[in-house]
Amino acid sequence: MPTQPISPDASGYYGDYGGMFIPEILRTTFDELIASFTTAKADPTFWQSYVDVMQNYSCRPTPITPLDNFAKSLGGKFQIFCKREDLNHTGAHKANNVMGQGLLVQRMGKNRVIAETGAGQHGVATATMAARMGLECTIYMGSVDVERQRPNVFWMEQLGATVIPVTEGTATLKDAINAAMRDWAESMETTHYVLGTTCGPHPFPEMVSWFQSIIGLESREQMQKLNSKLPERIYACVGGGSNASGIFLPFLDDNSVELIGVEAGGHGINSGEHAARFSGGTVGVAQGYKTYFFQNDEGQMQHTHSIAAGLDYIGVSPILSHLYDQQRIRFTSATDEEVISATKTLIRTEGIIPALESAHAFASVIEEAPQIPAGTQVLINLSGRGDKDIFNIAEAIGDKKWQKFLEQKALRP
Amino acid sequence: MNLTEYLKKRLTQRKILLMTHAVVGYPSLEANWEMLEMMAEADVDLVELQMPFSEPSADGPLFVKANQEALRNGIRWVDYFDLMQRASEQFAFPILMMNYCNTAFSMGYETYCDNINRNGAVGFIIPDLPLEEYGDLFESCRKQELNPIMICTPTNTKERLQKICASGSGFIYCAARKGVTGQNTELNLAAGNILQQCRQFTDLPLALGFGLSEPDDLRKLQGKAEIAIVGSALLKTWESAGKAAYRKHLMSLAEARI
User: Fold this and answer.
1) Which of 155-174 (B) contact A at CB < 8 A?
2) Which residue in A168, A186, A286 is closest to B178 by CB distance?
3) Among B54, B100, B160, whose Cβ lies nearest the Cβ of A27?
């Protein structure tokens, strides 16, 4: 059973970040959730039941794959490994969190779950968990995203979930979170809100990072077994921060390991069209917690942009904000263009199709390669697979034949 | 101004008081002014002015849209406080600021309280700021003699209600039901219970809000609550039936106080 190297204080703060900025109507629900999570966390059989479920339902432990060809394409001076979260059931690390919270829902005796989703990954994962555990399921998704991510909507509905398009605000992920909070403010007696990332009010950052820490715990053991030592650097993409927290936190006390979070650079930091909160954000309070947000000088949230819907979000985990202030994690960003190039390279050199989100971490390794010392061992978290993103990746790559196929398909009666 | 004393004095003239609401900048600042003039004409007892926010997670669809449109209309702090100042100079009713936490946080708590005070309002309501997160804000309001309005809800435990009531000032805002603003409320057991429970823990006047819309709601509340809060219902009338209907609705609510 893992102990977390970093815990929030009694009010749910990591340094200056986090907290519980919740409407009073949800206070009792949060108190119950905290109590339930605290008990589960202290119970070794709970963690074991989580590991068991992840083994027999979601292919854990996921392997570590050496990427020798990819490393060679960068000059071959250092070694690269990747943690294969793409091999999880439903194709991403999101499965870890939803199955964990699903077990918690069973303990709490609730029969309905709700969730927000951006790209649809967390929505599909939650709908999958709900189908498996026999729970009623409603997914809130921005109407813009519903249009962009039809295949995921299709699967959520096939899995028995009700998908509600959210038309308010920018009709994207942040608005889906607001809508889910509104549902919860009414339905809390029977319903649990399966928040998809290490954001939101306490205890979500702690809880989600606890479930996701299975990534780092496995990686630590696997890297030691493989190389008899820990890697010198770990790269992970950062949207809300769940895959990054998952792989980073178990290495937090290993000072020899440099932790690098890669945010969405969009069209470039100078363009203003990005989602790099640590480059363009300031500290604020929204969606129930205090952290770095992409906001204007009066605290109104701003439009974010990323080629990867999963990174296209205004806020970032309070845990990561704290570790940023502490300078324990270094943050950088990768542009859409660099990400597409990295995606192509990984596909061609290793036969691995990364999710566009995960490809941000690979893009940063490519960018920093000239400065990475010889003999370094680099670990990259491959948080999700990209073949599910075929529509988006094909569009991003600009494949003419695919476009023609779509046109023909659409014209076919 | 001592808000509690003002409210108690008003209560010697009528059986229940009426608090109304406007989202500043929606449908426009000009429309807000017309609403405020009608509120004054109706001799409304208390008015809350909402500063729009991009993430109004405690509001229902109508106010969400109002927040969004107001921001699209370019409303900034300066516009908001300008309206507040003009209203406090022109009209007799006391004004409360209503906003989400990030507005106060971004301004800095001290500046926030100073702005409210300087522009003539008497307190504020922040729906996503539970008392544990107040921090320096309590100190800043004490200095400026502002009333932080605390919210009690039907899902709170007794211990929690006691704690909230003890931190309150001016009056206590009781939510009639679960959920967000703007859906109808059957004045049911939950509403009665929350009022009864809060009464045990405070001598402050009690306001009931969330879903009140008709004069009959006010009549039913007489003797149970001191203040009825009507927000979304009036805006709905403005939207669906226009200015004259809004005035009529407002007047009928005002008359139901006696």
Assistant:
1) 155-157, 160, 164
2) A186
3) B160
Query: For residue B54, which phi and psi values (nearest 5 degrees)?
Result: -70, -20
Helix, strand, coil share (%) of chain B residues, nearest 5: 50, 15, 35
| Mean pLDDT, rounded, for A202-206 | 98
The domain defined by A21-56+93-204 carries CATH number 3.30.390.50: no
CB nearest A25 (choices: B53, B76, B178) = B178
ipTM for the predicted complex: 0.95
Contact check, Cβ <8 Å, A25/B65: no
The CATH number given to whatever domain includes residue B200 is: 3.20.20.70
Residues of A labelled catalytic: 94, 116, 383
Q: What token pair was written down for B243?
A: 């200015």
* Token couple for A204: 């979500």
Give how far A32 is from chain B: nearest CA, Å. Answer: 12
Domain that holds residue B144: 3-255
Mean pLDDT computed over every residue of chain A: 95
Q: pLDDT of B209-244, one tens digit each?
A: 988 999 999 999 999 999 999 999 999 999 999 999
* pTM greater than 0.90: yes
What architecture does CATH give domain A60-91+213-397?
3-Layer(aba) Sandwich (3.40)
Chain A residues touching residue B154 (CB < 8 angstroms): 25
Rounded Cα distance between B111 and B128, Å, is 19
Task: Please write the tens of the pLDDT for every residue from A309-353.
Answer: 889 999 999 999 999 999 999 999 999 999 999 999 999 999 999
* Domain spans, chain A: 21-56+93-204, 60-91+213-397
Torsion angle of alpha carbons B91, B25, B253, B182, nearest 10°?
A: -150
Per-residue pLDDT at A176: 94
B82-133, pLDDT tens digit by residue? 999 999 999 999 999 999 999 999 999 999 999 999 999 999 999 999 999 9
CA dihedral A389, A393, A396, A398 (to 10 degrees): -130
Contact B106 A298 (CB under 8 A): yes
